[in-house]
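Review form for a predicted model. The reviewer records the input and the model, then writes brief findings.
Reviewer: anonymous (R2)
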Amino acid sequence: MDFSQLKKEYKFLGDILNLYDELDKPLIEDAKYQGILNSCDSAPFLKNDLTGVYKNFCKKLSINMLLLADRDYKGDELIKYCDIFYIWMYFEINKYSIPNEITNELFKASTRVVTSKRSKTPCPYLNFNEKIHEPTKLMKLHIFNNNVYTLQSMLKSAIESDECSLKRYVYKCIEIYRDMYSKYCSNGDDKKEGNQNSCEIINKFNTLYSSYINKKYGILHDFPELSSTIALNVIDGCPLEESESNPIPDKSQQGTPITRGVSTALSSMFTPVRNMFRFGNKKHNIITSDFDKNMENELFHAIKEDSIIKDIQPKYNIGYEPI
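Model under review:
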């Protein structure tokens, strides 16, 4: 599974989805990021990275965090963009088999640069590869949780051609909730250390779905209670969904794609603020050579002082094939 498949389900995010393509661009060692490049090349606990895989991840992660910070997203808007950043991290970490310890330390060091040198608000730390069950499923619930008001509004005003696509998206989230709640969060299992991060997302879905989708608030469709046993593959007023002829296997089960029609309707929700989402805004290109030198020192010392990883141990097997 890759983001192009998940993207079909998240079209209600509108222009926010464009961020993934921006984050996923190949690394170009631009002079304006020389401080970051030097810091990652000099990081003490990456000195044994003979292939450069971890150093490149360090550079991309730091540059992408700086890119997000420079755009001054606030509040709920920042959280929605952070969701895309977390998904990018998930696929990047899996592609290059980056250990969670390295991701955590690089994230902390980059956060210090964003807060101390730019006085910006960084994304909170979240790694879908770390202490989270079935991450691609939980991505869907996490996205739902952070966009429930948009979904509620769209379900109230969805035109007939879009309505079934919206319903299917919500029903897929219900299916994921039922499955994962029974596995990890019922009978007090949510208190177990290995389940806590997952159950926090799962239980939040319960609260938000029950409060804003299941309780009507102008939504005409009668969505089921989460605790009910009603079948989820038959949706009142909607034709049965055709099965994919060549489904792509994935351990987290691929969700139902949202159709092209719903993309137009849902993306229009973001039209009034599209100018804020443009990536070519000149005000963001403000990195100077003086700042870059300071940033290099800050990132280097943040990594050196905060890291509990003294070396890359042989168990990390730098040269193995990506997942």
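Findings: Confidence is low (pLDDT under 50) at residues 244-291, 306-323.
Further findings: The chain has two domains: 8-130+279-315, 135-240+250-275.
Recommendation: see findings above.
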